[in-house]
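Lab notebook, bench 4. We co-purified these components, and the gel suggests they stay together. Before we commit to crystallization screens, I want a quick structural picture of the whole thing.
Request: model the full complex, all chains together.
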Amino acid sequence: MRCFTSFILGFFGVIFLFPSCRKNVDNPPPDAQHGAITTLTLVITDSSTLPAYQDTIVFDDPDGAGGQQPIRWDTVRLQPERFYKAQVYLTNKLANPIQNLNPIVIAQGTQHLFVYRSDTSMLKVRITDQDNLNLPLGLQTSWETQKRIGWTNLEINLRHIAFGKNNNSGISTGHSDLQVLFPLSIQP
Amino acid sequence: MLHLIGAILLSSRPWLPQDMDSTLIGQRLDSSKSLQLPTVEIINQVPGQGSEYNRLSAAKAFEHSGQPLARQMETIPGVTVLSSGAQLAKPVVNGLHSQRILILQDGVRLESQAWGSDHAPEIDPFQEGEWTLLQAAASLRHGPEALGGVLDQQSTPLLKHGHLDAHWSSVWMSNNGLIGMHLRLQGPLDRRGHLQWRWQGSNRLGGNYSVPGAFVANTGNREQSTTAELQYNHNKLLINNYLRVYSLRQGLYPGAHAENSDDLQNAIASSLPMWKGDFGYNLERPMQKVLHWQYSLRIQRAHRGGGLSNLRYGYQDNQRQEYDIRSFLPLPEMALELGTQTASYTYTKTIGNFRLENAVGLMFQQNLNQPANARQFIRNYQSLNRWAYTLLSWETSNLGKHEWALRYDQIGFTSFYRPPGTNPEDPASPDKRSFQRLSTAWTWNYQIPRSEWRIRVNAGTGWRPPSANELYANGLHQGMAALERGNLTLKPEHTWTGNIGLGWKRGPIDLESQIGLRNIQDYIFLEPQQPSAVTINGVYPQFAYVGRDAVLTHWNSSASAQMGKGWKLNLAWALIRGRENPQGTWLVWMPADRWLLGLHRNPTSNTNDALGSQTKSQFNYGIEIQHVSRQSRIPLSEDRQTSLDYAPAPAAYTLLRIYLGGQLMRQHLQWIISLDNALNTRYRDYMNRLRYFADEPGRNLSLRLQYHLHRHKTI
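Here is the predicted assembly.
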């Protein structure tokens, strides 16, 4: 009995060393969402004017999905009957340092497609860049505004098409990695 | 209750070695054995014997083998499941689930990321042994947070003598093409029987499940499990080593991830899954992977004075990875590792009619976010739980059997977090919390002399501190396709429970009924929040943890009648009510009313002896009708006019199940063919988180086989 009691005491003596294990628990990495999109920046240029017109449109939700509401959600303002070029930049502000996601989208271009949706009687969008299989990608586009003026919306939707992206892929293909609805104003 | 249905099937006792079966059951039925003087021979006695419990027998488990463990548990009265699709299911006992239900494996409580309703217990559904639901005093042994009860698996005793004992079982299901196999080998290692061993291995491969008219995409799973056990048992000493490894890859239905509020509404309104799949075993994102290790060491020693010492140590490592459907990188969005060490010492002594059990122990736990992790849905944390309890049981012919338990817990909890964008060199901000409290419970079992009546009463208190996810969750819970928010102001739950059960048995009629009341202060639950959340990734339902006073009541009953020539009729029901207190709205995720009517024929159970032997070439067959009402008691907004839920509660449904079983090859081979949802009824269950998007599985034909390669002679 005495031997067994000693064993029990020794056993618990060892067990009480538990908390000294795994010290990394108090040293977590910063909560950085790899690959998460927090910010969409749209740079619009019209080189037909002097000086060239350029505008930067931003949707910014720096704490990602959940948490606080987006801190910036701009309106796209265009003039009728003009040609514009647009470039999309995707950013992850949760990462440290801030992560530019465009190279990842380009590298995985055969699984991604930007879809632009708006009232075509006011704005027509055409994709001008391609992925490695020469299929449309959509980081770069050209926009043609029509004669009609007024307010509408412009939806930018990044489709994640894991399999079978082709020339017919569109809004109903795959899943959305990103979906932002910008207010769009076309005024003279 | 429902386990009486199992007793009928048990009467054929085809799938356990006969002497092992009768010995084990004999231990359970003979209550006096629990009061024997402590020798090593009582080591395999059932914890909590004499207190209120219900069982899932090995025979009943075989009848449902291949299904997730929680679905097998549904045969226990008051047990339902909270599920996310067909395969991810966790047990719900009288309306309580997740951290409020403890699951024991080899006497060690399973510690995993149990907080998610899509996180099924890491238990091999093929694993041999009987499951027992412990409640009240018996459950307090294992923790005060087991407000709903403790599910305890008792393995069959290891073989001390005889030859190698081998057992093989297999299952095939038509609905999802599931193929499952299990092999168990065991035997003594030396002639004197001092060393014994056992090994079990199983594999389960399931494809996309089908609902009437479609397959549900990406809902297959791959599951493997193995256990190894080595035991030394001689004179007054027993040393048992137990090792278990469990692995799961589970696909998640992608259609639950809506892109905008219209899509969400369309997905909810659609009668068929928006994402239809074909039959196949491929797994894609979204998915979850789980790897669980467990080692436990048990040392028991019987003392000269009649006492019995029991020393336990357990180590568990739970690794969980969840993969979003939307990801640029081939990495999991959630990667957590939970390490748990438990140690306890129990001393038991019997004096006359009294049995006293005292125990002390501790549990140390650390949760780590892995480097591949995209977000810290659950923060890094560590906790240390020091506890002690005393349990006194006594039995007299006049006053029946009593059990009384008193337990004290002290829990220290610290979490660590670095917000996004902070410098890794900056110190992490800790959040320290401390909890301590006494719990107590009392159980009384009484057979009224010279009467057909028996009484079971229990009452007690319990408590549970808020868990890490309830405090800190913030973001997308991908498995649920929902945004969940924690609540730093949550207080520990405190509960007062009382249950009264009455039984009556005369001749072929056996009735049993239990009512229970549970008052929970600061009951923590995930409440739907309106409107849904708009994010840059799409639109998601959002939920927040809240703590409010609540009252839960239940009424579980069963009736059975032996009708001669082996026919038996069963009726059982379970009614559960849960609402905020006082006069608040109904609680979300409470099971709807359930009714079960069964007609069974077992030619050998013509008498009341459920353990009667079965003769060769006779069939068991039966039919079961299960009816589940529509859950009309749903949470409402403050104006009591609109539902807080994202979809109306599903309609009531009725399911038909038929089965036929028998034996071949001199009873070495047992088989059961069953047809679940025989009418291919289209239905959704309120307790399934996927009910917003997809139906429950349609018709399912199953074939189950069991084969004993050898039989041992004695235990």
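Residues 167 and 708 of chain B are 5 Å apart (CA to CA). Worth comparing against the SEC data before the next meeting. Residues 18-29 of chain B form the longest helix (12 residues).
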